[in-house]
Amino acid sequence: KIFFIVQNFKITHDVFGFNQLNTVIMQFNTFPDIVFEATGVYLMVIAFVFMAVGAVAFLRNRMQTRYRDLSIIALLLFLFLAGARYTDYQQAKSRDDQQTQMASFVNEFATEQGIAKDKIFFNTQVVSDGMIVKMSQKYYHVTISADQQSYTLTRAYLVNPEVKVVK
Length: 167
Known about the structure:
3 helices, two-stranded parallel ribbon
């Protein structure tokens, strides 16, 4: 079993912000799966340039359809890449919203249970029905209501007591 601690914070876009992020990442014993990806943006720019060059060449030589075809292919590639980037953006935003929701849930949960936030461990990074929480060397099953406005704790017992905690 893996338990996560959700940490939500903002950093500045400079050396100090990078150092703050690097310090948090280096707290892990292993390297976390973090990918900074910009290849899709570069491909979109290249497709846009091909589309523009093809359009200009087609307007100069209307009799040669290969430039028109090049522009159409580049436009389709550009639209495909833009759609893929938008999907990635939506997924990242949804994941960020869910982690923010989990951070506020952890704060509220810790306050209601009267336990420090750093003494509570969950087995998921998002609020969901069926979460397992570890408090004071005891495990509990969290049942979330359908409207996510209330929860019920039920004592749980682990079959395998070997638990790996990921902060």
